[in-house]
Design a protein that fits this description.
Chain lengths: ~210, ~300
């Protein structure tokens, strides 16, 4: 029963939503809206679940004094502090909540992301070697795109931005379109397998 | 110089040169001119075709602070474009870290242009559920968002009385560093025939070119370069409309100059990006020259 009930709910809901799509009747539309509202409510609970799991994991680390447990105190402290500040001061522009967001979270996240520039530069120097024909093509495409995406490329040769655009709209697009179509077909087949109960890994165990 | 040394340059030296390449142009701007690309011009034209004081543009802030250096300048440029032409804006966020960015951008630009919340723009805030929210807004925006960001019931907001679903929205622009524009295309575009444009980070721009050809996207702003192009178009528009002249007359010299700097953030960033790209290319060339010289010597 623990396995059959979720499979049955999944089958009924999956088929209902497919059928509903083709019926423009008022009842069908109302059913669709109700399901969308339920979907959003369930999704909102996933945020609650995520927060609960975060607290559970870090609380366990603190109580067991596992490696780096001090950071867990900062994590839980930060979570509680931001929640309290948000509830007390509000979340509009000019409040303490927004000041912390702007002067702490924004620079921290931007710094983490900007580190990529250094690693990309180092990786490009080490990896972009014209060892084979394929590697040479990749190297040329990368250099043309890097030049095409900056104003300097235009001054070097006015056709470089056009060539960069051509790479994006032709070879790149052909490859990307193939991937998108493949992913789309994969999504349809996976959805069908889930609705028909062939793919059961989402309820734990099985194929 | 020893070829082995050229083949194995210390990565700390690479890091240092990249840091200098980024910092120096920010301190001493070069002012490299920007050349327009078609996807950005198309986005600008799509926004520009919305009638003043008519149906609003929907701007979805679907990115977190990590992507702000690239996406925030285009957010500001789009808002400036709308407000300088009296186009109303409906702002929302589907990303958990987006609401703060949306609040910062909308409030500041609205204040700069003297726009009124609830009449000239509405900030709906965040709703979890990505695709479900997009689909629900296709049926009824009032059902998807019961209140705005400031907890005001949607029905009480004057601008929202005329807006019910995508039929009342001429254009959606999704700004994202992830795959959220694809959700907008799949759900709002395919199911409700909504016109969509996207602003994305440079690294993900290549993924969206197939959708430009199929008209699933009417325009694309890619990375800081795209943002600087849009910024240039808006600055030119403001000059044509006389907005810039009025601003110059009403503000003190310091205030005006400060504003000019904030209106050219993407263009200033492009100087850094240009030099950083050249440094990376120089390292690639050095690495390859050393590689081929070493290979010849071994033969």
């Amino acid at each position: 029963m623990r396995r059959q009930l979720p499979l049955a709910i999944c089958f009924v809901m999956g088929v209902s939503m497919v059928v509903q799509f083709f019926i423009p009747h008022r009842v069908s539309q109302e059913f669709y809206r109700t399901i969308l509202d339920w979907y959003r409510i369930v999704f909102a609970f996933s945020l609650v679940l995520g927060t609960g799991t975060l607290i559970k994991v870090h609380w366990a680390k603190i109580s067991k004094k596992s490696k780096g447990w001090q950071y867990s105190i900062i994590t839980i402290g930060g979570l509680v502090f931001m929640l309290a500040v948000g509830f007390i001061t509000g979340i509009q522009e000019g409040t303490l909540f927004m000041k912390i967001f702007e002067y702490v979270e924004v620079p921290l996240e931007a710094t983490m992301f900007s580190l990529l520039a250094f690693y990309i530069a180092s990786a490009a120097y080490r990896a972009f070697r014209a060892r084979t024909v394929e590697a040479t093509l990749l190297l040329i495409a990368a250099v043309v795109l890097m030049l095409g995406r900056i104003p300097f490329g235009y001054y070097l040769w006015h056709k470089i931005p056009g060539i960069a655009e051509w790479i994006l709209t032709n070879p790149n697009m052909a490859a990307k379109r193939g991937i998108v179509i493949g992913v789309g077909l994969g999504m349809i087949s996976t959805a069908l397998k889930i609705i028909l109960g062939i793919e059961r890994s989402y309820i734990g165990g099985g194929k | 110089m020893n070829l082995e040394k050229l083949m194995r340059i210390d990565r700390r030296l690479i890091f240092l040169l990249i840091a200098l390449a980024v910092i120096f142009p920010l301190l001493f701007p070069i002012g490299l001119p920007t050349h327009l690309s078609k996807p950005v011009q198309d986005t600008f034209n799509a926004v520009d075709s919305i009638p003043p004081d008519g149906p609003p543009l929907m701007l979805s802030i679907d990115y977190d602070p990590a992507a702000m250096p690239e996406l925030y300048p285009m957010t500001l440029a789009i808002l400036r474009h709308c407000f300088s032409r009296n186009i109303r804006v409906l702002v929302l966020s589907l990303h958990r870290a987006g609401p703060g960015i949306g609040e910062m951008a909308t409030t500041r630009i609205a204040k700069e242009y003297g726009k009124k919340e609830g009449e000239d723009y509405v900030y709906l805030g965040f709703k979890p559920g990505f695709g479900a929210v997009i689909l629900r807004m296709g049926e009824d925006i009032h059902g998807a968002f019961l209140t705005d960001y400031y907890n005001r019931p949607i029905g009480e907001i004057p601008m929202m009385r005329e807006i019910h679903n995508y039929d009342d929205i001429p254009l959606v622009i999704c700004l994202s560093a992830a795959a959220i524009p694809e959700l907008w295309m799949m759900y709002a575009g395919s199911r409700y025939h909504q016109t969509i444009a996207a602003g994305v980070t440079a690294v993900s721009a290549a993924d969206y070119y197939p959708f430009l050809q199929t008209d699933q996207l009417v325009g694309l702003i890619g990375g800081l370069k795209g943002a600087s192009e849009y910024e240039k178009l808006v600055n030119e528009l403001e000059e044509r409309l006389g907005v810039d002249k009025k601003r110059k007359e009403s503000l003190s010299k310091e205030e005006y100059e400060k504003l000019q700097v904030s209106h050219s953030k993407a263009s200033a960033g492009m100087d850094s990006q240009s030099i950083a790209h050249l440094v990376i290319i120089a390292f690639i060339v050095i690495g390859n020259v050393a590689y081929f010289a070493q290979r010849r010597r071994k033969r």
